[in-house]
Every structure is written in C-alpha cells, then in structure tokens.
Automatic annotation (TrEMBL):
Gene3D superfamilies: Nucleic acid-binding proteins. InterPro entries: NA-bd_OB-fold, Rep_factor-A_N. Residues 1-45 form the Replication factor-A protein 1 N-terminal domain. GO terms for cellular component: nucleus. GO terms for molecular function: DNA binding. This is Replication factor-A protein 1 N-terminal domain-containing protein. Coiled coil: none annotated. One of its GO terms (biological process) is DNA replication. It comes from the Eukaryota.
Amino acid sequence: FMANDGSMKLKAMLPTSISSEVQSGELQNLGLIRIIDYTCNAVPNQPQ
C-alpha cells in the first residue's frame, strides 16, 4: 500500500497479522491508521 502523511509518501507492506481486518473491511482503502512501530528494509533493484 502507499502511506502518505500529506508531505511525503512511501510504499509499505502490512503484516499478515492484520489480514483479517483488511478482509472484513475494518481497514478500508484510503483509511486512516496510526503506525506505532515499524521496520525499514531495503529492497534491491527497486527505483526510489
């Protein structure tokens, strides 16, 4: 998914632990979420 704070955007992946919220519709497209913790990983051969 694309995360955007109004001034910057980035590509991100959701953990599989919340896939039930996505499938049930509890987490909606263009919804607002609060990110409490995150991990950054470099993806080789990907444009910035």
